[in-house]
């Protein structure tokens, strides 16, 4: 008798038959965004439509940008900065009161203008060698070498980046391929060169004048890429200061300074120095 009461309470008697109600599914019929292509820091509003909104809750997620929203709409914000154009998949899960759910997703694009400019001149100097030119060497060296007992300075020059009309310059960095390391730490200083030069003529006694800009502590010793942010230097070029390139040297020139050998513009194309610039 108790079992019969339970069955009847969960079912309806229709025309002499017992009919148990089936849970109603939830179906997402549309997922849209006001804008699907954006710039960094821009926002867009997303809208979700379901066929029956009764008791439905919504859960939004994104992997690249940030998203805020609890109901059937949400605001997505692009990342503050990107070096390259990137894509984000925004996902929504709609769940009804009977714990049935449906999922939908939409792809958003964050678009930036990325330039990679090759070096048009480079060389290095060795403090104990005032005669040799290293402008055609496969490497540019920085730091101190205990075998040579001398200090290396590297010089790199790039063409001016061209920022498209209507866009704003955002950031710049130097990309170098680290081929050899000596010493666990090498604190590399970056200088803005203020005097014109040609690699073939640069010697320890005739290095172009320069101004200290920043430094980077390289703690890695494995082969691979190393990046130096030179946004402020490129901004100086854009506001009228001459583009004479950069110099790299050990920040503190001591026998414990360490040494780094980077591929030069005379090396294989994929590992040459590059100036990377982003605008939007």
Shape: elongated
- CATH top-level class of the largest domain: Mainly Beta
Low-confidence stretches at least 5 residues in length (pLDDT < 50)? 1-19
Q: Helix count? A: 2
Order of helices and strands: HEEEEEEEEEEEEEEEEEHEEE
Helical percentage? under 10%
The description of the largest β-sheet is: 6 strands, antiparallel, barrel
For the largest beta sheet, what order do the strands appear in spatially?
A: 11-13-12-19-14-20
Number of beta strands:
20
Q: N-to-C terminal Cα separation, in Å? A: 75 Å
**Roughly how many Å is the radius of gyration?**
31 Å
Structural class: mainly beta
Residue-averaged pLDDT, rounded?
92
- Report strand %: over 45%
Which topology of the largest domain does CATH recognise? Jelly Rolls
Secondary-structure arrangement, i.e. CATH architecture of the largest domain: Sandwich
Number of domains: 2
Short description:
This protein is mostly beta strands and 280 residues long. 6% of the residues lie in helices and 50% in strands.
Features of this protein?
280 residues; mainly beta; Immunoglobulin-like; Jelly Rolls; six-stranded antiparallel barrel; four-stranded antiparallel β-sheet; 6% helix; elongated; disordered N terminus
Structure commentary:
This protein has about 280 residues and is mainly beta. It has 2 domains: about 25-110, Immunoglobulin-like (Sandwich), CATH 2.60.40; about 115-280, Jelly Rolls (Sandwich). Helices cover about 5% and strands about 50% of the residues. It is built from 2 helices and 20 strands. It has a 6-stranded antiparallel β-barrel. A 4-stranded antiparallel beta sheet has the order 3-5-8-7, with no helix packed on it. A hairpin with a 4-residue loop joins strand 12 and strand 13 (about 150-160). The chain is elongated and about 90 Å long. The relative contact order is 0.18. Residues about 1-20 have low confidence and may be disordered.
């Amino acid at each position: 008798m108790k079992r019969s009461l339970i069955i009847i309470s969960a079912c309806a008697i229709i025309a002499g038959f017992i009919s148990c109600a089936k849970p109603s599914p939830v179906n997402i019929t549309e997922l849209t965004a006001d804008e699907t292509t954006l710039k960094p820091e821009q926002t867009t509003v997303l809208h979700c439509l379901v066929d029956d909104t009764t008791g439905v809750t919504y859960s939004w997620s994104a992997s690249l940008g940030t998203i805020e929203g609890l109901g059937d709409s949400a605001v997505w914000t692009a990342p503050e900065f990107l070096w390259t154009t990137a894509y984000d998949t925004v996902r929504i899960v709609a769940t009804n009161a009977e714990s049935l759910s449906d999922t939908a997703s939409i792809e958003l694009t964050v678009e930036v203008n990325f330039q990679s400019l090759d070096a048009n001149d480079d060389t290095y100097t060795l403090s104990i060698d005032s005669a040799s030119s290293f402008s055609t060497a496969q490497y540019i060296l920085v730091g101190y070498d205990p075998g040579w007992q001398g200090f290396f300075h590297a010089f790199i020059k790039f063409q001016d980046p061209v920022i498209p009309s209507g866009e704003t310059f955002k950031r710049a960095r130097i990309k170098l391929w680290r081929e050899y390391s000596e010493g666990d730490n090498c604190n590399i200083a970056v200088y803005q060169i203020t005097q014109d030069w040609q690699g073939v003529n640069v010697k320890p006694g005739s290095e172009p004048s320069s101004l200290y800009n920043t430094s980077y502590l390289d703690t890695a010793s494995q082969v691979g890429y190393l990046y130096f942010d030179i946004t402020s230097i490129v901004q100086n070029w854009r506001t009228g200061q001459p583009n004479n390139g950069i110099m790299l040297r050990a920040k503190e020139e001591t026998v414990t300074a360490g040494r780094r050998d980077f591929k030069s513009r005379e090396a294989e194309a994929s590992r040459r120095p590059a100036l990377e610039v982003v605008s939007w």
